[in-house]
Amino acid sequence: MTADPSGTPMTSGNLLTDNPALYEARFPDPDRLAGRWAEDCLRRHGAGPRVLDLGCGTGRDAAHLHGAGRAVTGADLSEAMLAHARTHHPGPAYVQADLHGFDLGEGVFDAVVCLDSSLLYCHANAQLDGFLASCRRTLTPGGLLVAEMRNGAYFLGRTDLLDIPTVDTFTWQGTTYRSATNLFVDRTAQLLRRIRVWSADDGSPPVEQHSAWRLLFPLELRHFLAAHGFEVLDLHDGPGPRTEPAWREGESPGVTADGDRLHLVARLSA
Ligand SMILES: C[S@@+](CC[C@H](N)C(=O)[O-])C[C@H]1O[C@@H](n2cnc3c(N)ncnc32)[C@H](O)[C@@H]1O
């Protein structure tokens, strides 16, 4: 930890991804909606059994896919997430990998799954290229890429999620946590940036954290995918696991890409 000039303790880490149990408490998914939605996409498009969950986080979705009969590898950059996943969501193999560029073998997966905006940690075009080139190498011809993320296009002309601090509190294991969050658009970098200040009633000092996600637009995504040999099968704003209302078993994909979440299924050309 370092301190800024005003004395506020700062960290470059991320309270939630550094504390996977807290992450799961903050974003509960008791019905495994994200995992079920991903499995539905895989089944609908006839994916083979070998799945890579990239940016797997706590391992919840990887374990769900494993439970559905798939041979799953979960990959993440965070050792804390991987350690949690191995202990709490056993079944899949868990490995460290950077989604900006990874080599987990050639033609060894039938599908890559990338949920809850993990793909948007590719900030620069070169990182997106690295991600798609790595997916292409690791997928078998005809393999699928399934992703779910924020939709950059949502922020064209809309400011409802921006520039107004939102305050949230929740209690976990007897400690009440408070977060004050500010989202803003960095147009030059084409990023959605977040500054979040955490405080807790356990006497620990406040922590300020900076995160960013690529503002990726649907037609831009189509262009990157085509350049790397992927054919887009679905690209829409819902229903999905994090839309309002949420996706329900049996529901078909939509056709618009206007809402704040984007859902993608693409196939690597044979
Ligand atoms: C919002 S979480 C989503 C986790 C999980 N997919 C889910 O839906 O619960 C994003 C995850 O991406 C991981 N991540 C961030 N940058 C990464 C990178 N460059 N390579 C691999 N994983 C990364 C984080 O450690 C974190 O676990």
Automatic annotation (TrEMBL):
This is Methyltransferase domain-containing protein. CDD domains: AdoMet_MTases (cd02440). It comes from the Bacteria. Transmembrane segments: none annotated. Residues 51-143 form the Methyltransferase domain. SUPFAM superfamilies: S-adenosyl-L-methionine-dependent methyltransferases. One of its GO terms (molecular function) is methyltransferase activity. It comes from Streptomyces aurantiogriseus.
